[in-house]
Design brief:
alpha/beta; six-stranded parallel β-sheet; U2A'_phosphoprotein32A_C; 6% strand; extended; phosphoprotein; nucleus; repeat
Length: 264
């Protein structure tokens, strides 16, 4: 995809003045120049043109609010004076992986008064003797060169990023969303645990009720058995009493018979 089409795609029905950051990495530049980017992007703060085959930045429009420019992995060998003319408020510039060979090609950057960070990784200029000392001497406004200050202290994350470029804000929002999701998952897990605890308690109560019912049934059966035993005892006593009465009656009859014999 060529650069003009990519810019149109990145707009997403917005006007150029609404855009604060524009990423055009890996698109194709025609004849190694910037195309489709105009001064209408008046609020642009972050521009990324990584690996687009740039040879020159001569077509760069004036972008007064641009703070961070990514130009790594291109074929730029000079012509950096355009940056000082068109990007007066630039603070971060990445020229890693370009064709910069001499310290003198960096001299136009002296006019970028707000430039704090410059990256030249994988450029031939980094192989020169006293490279770091020479660059810091040439550009005294620099705080970091290739991610380290003049005392070889590494740049912090806050120093390495541009405030308000929109990239950090997106990352923060993503982080907050992840935290919210984690929090929701934790709350969901806690609710599940509470439900499981309630189910266990209810299960225990059900077991207790069932045990109570079993005991009542056992008690009822024992009571019925006792009543049956009592009835059997009463029947035996009545039978014994009946036998006694029969014996008594038989004895009385024998006595009457004896009396009759005596009379005879």
């Amino acid at each position: 995809m060529d650069m003009e089409k990519r810019i149109h795609l990145e707009l997403r029905n917005r006007t150029p003045s609404d855009v604060r950051e524009l990423v055009l990495d890996n698109c194709r530049s025609v004849e190694g120049k910037i195309e489709g980017l105009t001064a209408e992007f008046v609020n642009l703060e972050f521009l990324s043109l990584i690996n687009v085959g740039l040879i020159s930045v001569s077509n760069l429009p004036k972008l007064g609010k641009l703070k961070k420019l990514e130009l790594s992995d291109n074929r730029i060998s000079g012509g950096l004076d355009v940056l000082a003319e068109k990007l007066p408020n630039l603070t971060h510039l990445n020229l890693s992986g370009n064709k910069l060979k001499d310290i003198s090609t960096l001299e136009p950057l002296k006019k970028l008064d707000n430039l704090k960070s410059l990256d030249l990784f994988n450029c031939e200029v980094t192989n020169l003797n006293d490279y770091r000392e020479s660059v810091f001497k040439l550009l005294p406004q620099l705080t970091y060169l290739d991610g380290y200050d003049i005392e070889d202290r590494e740049a912090s994350d806050s120093d390495g990023e541009v405030d308000g470029d929109g990239v950090d804000d997106d990352e923060d929002e993503e982080g907050e969303e992840e935290e919210d999701e984690d929090g929701e998952e934790e709350d969901f897990d806690e609710e599940e645990e509470d439900e499981e605890d309630e189910e266990e308690v209810e299960g225990e109560e059900d077991d207790e009720e069932v045990s109570g019912e079993d005991e009542e049934e056992d008690f009822g059966q024992d009571g019925e058995g006792d009543e049956e035993d009592d009835d059997d005892d009463e029947d035996e006593e009545e039978a014994e009493a009946g036998k006694g009465e029969k014996r008594k009656r038989g004895a009385e009859d024998e006595d009457e018979d004896d009396d009759d014999d005596d009379d005879d």
